[in-house]
């Protein structure tokens, strides 16, 4: 029996449907979905499997799932929209918009350094307890108090949760709205996209529940800096899906956690990028060609502050096409998530793509890559 219980792909993109089927045969998929837009029109929308392993509830067209750091694409889009509108200079000091940020050697840090993970702030010294994270201000004060771990702009390292809070505060200082509120007001609600930074209570019962794949490598000890980055010094757990404050917890999913806390459907997430690069069904594209040229200019690549080089390339807020994360070409940009989710857009090819799943395999696993390869073959 086909694992694609619902959905369709236009004939030209039939290979994507075939690849989606093979994922269920070759990988430990539980539930998943993939959507592709081409020229602003939906050409693939497929879903299958189980949204909740405990109840057997099926994945539906509108099922949403936590997509972790795909949130960074939403936050970065907000920043580029403000820059395009002349309200934000990405190469000006953050302190122009947020004066308190300049404390402790941060006066010369620019928004672009943050977008490129070059600000020297991958983790904070202070631990903000879970119960205070949703209040926003305690995290912002901890960022103000933080000294950079290296001379800003000289190297890079993944900024995890700090990325979202720092850029989110810049958006808040400019617009008076949280970054999640700004996104919903300017993009999500007008276009009817099922994507949120902070899932509304009305959507909680319809979300997919995450499960962890067997054999995932364990996290380093709690004191290790990589663990500190992804858990905010232990205030969060990872993967910790069903533990208190884990990634199936409505208390976590409902808060605005803009570095890694997006929840979206595949169509909602692909729609974010389709809106950016082509517009959807005749709506104007959100990002001009000049803005996309700025987005895809390489900012960070090669060995990071830890001396590690996975082969990733970063533009301003987005991953770029690389062997680490293959997309379509030089004008592709996107973000992935810790559960294997991935989304990107490309204005040269006029394509937007998103894959989401609830079986957490990990960054860079082969499920999304296989689907992107199929999209590329269909275009060729």
Count the helices. How many?
12
Could you say which structural class the secondary elements and strand pairing correspond to? alpha+beta
How far apart, in Å, are the first and last alpha carbons?
A: 30 Å
Largest sheet: 8 strands, antiparallel
CATH class assignment of the largest domain: Alpha Beta
**What's the total number of strands?**
15
Share of residues in strands:
15-25%
- Number of self-contained structural domains: 2
What oligomeric state do the depicted chains represent?
A: single chain
- Fill in the CATH topology of the largest domain: Beta-lactamase
Q: Uncertain runs with pLDDT below 50, 5 residues or more? A: none
Q: How are helices and strands ordered from N to C? A: EHEEEEHHHHHHEEHHEHHEEEEEEEH
Mean pLDDT: 96
Percent range of helical residues: 25-40%
Kindly report the name of the CATH homologous superfamily of the largest domain: DD-peptidase/beta-lactamase superfamily
Envelope shape: globular
Rg measurement, Å: 19 Å
């Amino acid at each position: 029996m086909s694992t694609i219980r619902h959905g369709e792909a236009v004939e030209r993109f039939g290979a994507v449907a075939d690849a989606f089927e093979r994922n269920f045969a070759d990988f430990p998929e539980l539930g998943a979905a993939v959507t592709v837009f081409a020229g602003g029109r939906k050409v693939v929308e497929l879903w299958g499997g189980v949204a909740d392993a405990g109840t057997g509830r099926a994945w539906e067209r509108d099922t949403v799932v936590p997509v972790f750091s795909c949130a960074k694409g939403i936050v970065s889009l907000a920043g580029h929209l403000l820059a395009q509108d002349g309200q934000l200079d990405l190469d000006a000091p953050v302190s122009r918009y947020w004066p308190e940020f300049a404390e402790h050697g941060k006066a010369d840090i620019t928004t672009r350094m943050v977008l490129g993970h070059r600000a020297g702030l991958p983790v904070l010294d202070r631990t903000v307890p879970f119960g205070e994270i949703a209040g926003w201000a305690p995290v912002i004060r901890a960022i103000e108090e933080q000294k950079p771990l290296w001379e800003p702009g000289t190297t890079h390292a993944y900024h995890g949760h700090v990325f979202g809070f720092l850029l989110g505060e810049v958006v808040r200082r400019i617009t008076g709205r949280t970054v999640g509120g700004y996104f919903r007001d300017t993009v999500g609600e007008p276009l009817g996209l099922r994507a949120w930074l902070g899932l509304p209570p009305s959507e909680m019962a319809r979300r997919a529940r995450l499960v962890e794949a067997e054999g995932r490598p364990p996290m380093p000890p709690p004191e290790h800096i990589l663990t500190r980055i992804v858990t905010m010094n232990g205030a969060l757990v990872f993967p910790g899906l069903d533990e208190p404050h884990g990634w199936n917890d409505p208390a976590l999913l409902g808060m605005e956690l803009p570095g890694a806390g997006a929840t979206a459907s595949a169509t909602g997430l692909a729609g974010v990028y389709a809106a950016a690069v082509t517009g959807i069904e005749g709506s104007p594209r959100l990002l001009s060609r000049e803005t996309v040229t700025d987005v895809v200019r390489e900012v960070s690549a090669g060995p990071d502050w830890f001396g590690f080089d996975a082969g990733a390339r970063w533009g301003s807020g987005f991953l770029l096409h690389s062997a680490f994360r293959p997309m379509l070409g030089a004008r592709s940009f996107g973000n992935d998530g810790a559960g294997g989710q991935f989304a990107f857009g490309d204005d040269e090819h006029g394509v937007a793509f998103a894959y989401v799943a609830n079986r957490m395999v990990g960054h860079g696993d082969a499920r999304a890559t296989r689907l992107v390869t199929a999209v590329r073959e269909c275009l060729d």
